[in-house]
Design goal:
The chain is an alpha/beta fold and about 425 residues long. It is about 35% helix and about 20% strand. It has helices at about 10-25, 45-55, 85-95, 100-110, 160-170, 185-190, 285-305, 310-315, 340-345, 355-370, 375-380, 385-400, 400-410, 410-415, 415-420, and strands at about 40-45, 65-70, 85, 115-120, 120-130, 130-135, 140, 155, 175, 195-200, 215-230, 240-250, 250-260, 270-280, 305-310, 315-320, 335.
Length: about 425
C-alpha cells in the first residue's frame, strides 16, 4: 500500500497541509510582494536545484520560465554522495513534484513500497576485540521498540534520486540544458526572461562571484552498498531498522550508519553502510591512513552484522569533504541566490540530514522568490533546527566523546533522548 496515495486521499492532503504550514512559518503571506524576477536560471541539477525548480513552476508566473543548466547526472554503482532520504524529505520532494511516496521511490530506487524503508533507529558502541567486533547493548533512539508508523528514512543512491527527479519533472514546465556553467554571464545566457534570478546550486562557491574560504572542518567518509551473508543478518542489526554503530578512537567517534537500501544498478544490495569522521582541517591528519582505518571498520562491523560489501571494487567509495558553517554565511550577491550555500550547514555525511536540507531549502527558497521575499534568510531560518542538531551531534562525537561513549554503553535511549529522539518530528514523514 502506498504511504501517500492519489491527491484526493487523506494521507496526501495531510502531507500537503503539513508542508504548507511549514512554508507559511518561514514565508509569511504578510510579506508578499510581486516577484523581483521574471525568470530563474539555475546552475546545477542536484536535489536542492530540482526541488527549487519544481516548487517554482507550481506558480503560474514561473511556468516555462525556469531553466536548469548542468550536465546530466552521472550514474555509477559507486556511492559518491548520501543515501539516506528521511521521511520528511520525501514529503517535500514528492509534494514539490506532485507525486506520492510510492512513485518517488519507484523512480529513485527502482522499487515500490515498502521498499528500502526504516521505521526505527537503534545505536550501540562498537568495540574491536582482537579483530573481532562486539557491540554494547543496543537501544532505540527513534521509533521506540516497535517502530514508528510513518517512515523515518528510505535508502537510495543520491545520483539515482537526482536522475529520478529529472524523470518525474519531464512533464513539468522546466527546461533542462546539458552544459557546464563557467560564469554568471554564461548562466544568464540561458535565461528565459530579461530579469532573471541567477541561482548557484553547485559546489563552486565562486561561480557567480561569491566568496570562498577554507573550511575549518572536514569529513572523512567510507561507504558502500551491502548484501546479506548466507546466514542472514546478526544482532543488533534488525529488519525495518537503521543501526548506528559508533567507534571511539583517538577521542573522536567514528559514526556508522547501516540502513535498508535499494539501487537498480546493484540489485543484490539490500543494505547500505557508512562510517564518517569529522576532523579539524589544521589537525595534521593523514587522509589515506584514516580512510584505510575506516574502510577496515566498515568491513569488520559489516561482517559482525551478517553483511558483506557488494562488489567493493565497483561500489565502495572513500571521500574527504568540507564541512559548512553552522552559523552565519555570506549573503548572496544582488540578482543571485547561493542556494547550495544557504541550505548547507554543519558536517555532511554523518547525521543523515543532507537530503532534508536540500529538499526543504529548495522548496522554501522557491516560495520566498515567488512571494517577493529574500530567500537567503528564509532558507537559513527554516533549516536552523537541523543545523542545531548537526552541531550538537558534532559536540557529542568530537568534544565529549568519552562521555558519549560511557552514556551509550549504559542506556542508548536515555543518552540519545535530546535532541535526537525529542526531534523525531524533524525526520519522520508527516503523512
Amino acid at each position: 500500500m502506498s504511504l501517500v496515495d492519489a491527491p484526493g486521499k487523506a494521507q496526501t492532503r495531510h502531507r500537503n497541509e503539513s508542508g504548507q504550514r511549514f512554508i507559511s512559518r518561514f514565508v509569511p503571506a504578510t510579506g508578499t510582494r510581486p516577484p523581483s524576477y521574471d525568470s530563474v536560471v539555475i546552475a546545477g541539477n542536484g536535489i536542492g536545484a530540482q526541488a527549487f525548480a519544481a516548487q517554482l513552476v507550481k506558480h503560474p508566473q514561473f511556468e516555462g520560465k525556469v531553466t536548469l543548466v548542468a550536465p546530466p547526472a552521472q550514474e555509477s554503482r559507486r556511492l559518491i554522495n548520501g543515501v539516506s532520504l528521511r521521511g520528511v524529505a520525501a514529503d517535500f520532494l514528492s509534494s514539490a513534484v506532485g507525486v506520492d511516496h510510492a512513485t518517488l521511490l519507484q523512480a529513485a530506487a527502482g522499487t515500490s513500497l515498502p521498499g528500502p524503508v526504516a521505521h526505527r533507529q537503534t545505536a550501540a558502541m562498537a568495540i574491536d576485540r582482537n579483530g573481532e567486533w562486539k557491540f554494547s547493548n543496543s537501544g532505540p533512539w527513534q521509533g521506540g521498540s516497535k517502530g514508528n508508523a510513518a517512515p523515518l528514512v528510505y535508502g537510495m543512491r543520491n545520483s539515482r534520486l537526482v536522475a529520478g527527479l529529472r524523470e518525474l519533472l519531464a512533464e513539468h514546465p522546466v527546461e533542462y540544458v546539458d552544459d557546464m556553467v563557467e560564469s554568471a554571464a554564461h548562466l544568464r545566457s540561458y535565461a528565459a526572461g530579461t530579469r532573471p534570478l541567477l541561482v548557484n546550486a553547485t559546489t563552486k562557491p565562486t561561480l557567480l562571484g561569491g566568496d570562498s574560504s577554507a573550511p575549518q572542518r572536514l569529513v572523512l567518509a567510507v561507504q558502500a552498498p551491502m548484501i546479506e551473508a548466507d546466514s542472514g543478518i546478526s544482532h543488533p542489526l534488525q529488519r525495518d531498522t537503521t543501526f548506528a554503530p559508533l567507534i571511539r578512537r583517538n577521542d573522536i567517534i567514528d559514526v556508522g550508519y547501516f540502513t535498508p537500501f535499494a539501487d537498480p544498478l546493484s540489485p543484490r544490495s539490500t543494505w547500505y553502510g557508512i562510517f564518517a569522521r569529522v576532523v579539524d582541517a589544521d589537525s595534521g591528519f593523514d587522509k589515506d591512513a584514516e580512510l584505510a582505518t575506516m574502510t577496515g571498520e566498515l568491513h569488520g562491523v559489516a561482517n559482525a552484522l551478517g553483511l558483506m560489501v557488494d562488489d567493493a571494487a565497483e561500489t565502495l567509495a572513500g571521500a574527504l569533504v568540507p564541512a559548512s558553517s553552522w552559523g552565519k554565511v555570506a549573503p548572496s550577491k544582488p540578482g543571485t541566490l547561493e542556494l547550495k550555500r544557504m541550505y548547507s550547514g554543519g558536517a555532511p555525511c554523518y547525521y543523515a540530514d543532507g537530503m532534508i536540507s536540500a529538499a526543504i531549502g529548495g522548496v522554501i527558497g522557491a516560495e520566498a522568490v515567488v512571494h517577493g521575499q529574500d530567500p537567503d534568510p528564509a532558507i537559513r531560518r527554516a533549516l536552523r533546527p537541523w543545523r542545531r542538531h548537526n552541531f550538537l551531534w558534532w559536540l557529542e562525537t568530537n568534544k565529549i566523546s568519552a562521555l558519549t561513549d560511557r552514556l551509550l554503553r549504559v542506556n542508548v535511549q536515555a543518552s540519545m533522548a535530546y535532541p535526537h529522539s525529542a526531534g523525531l518530528r524533524m525526520w519522520k514523514s508527516a503523512a
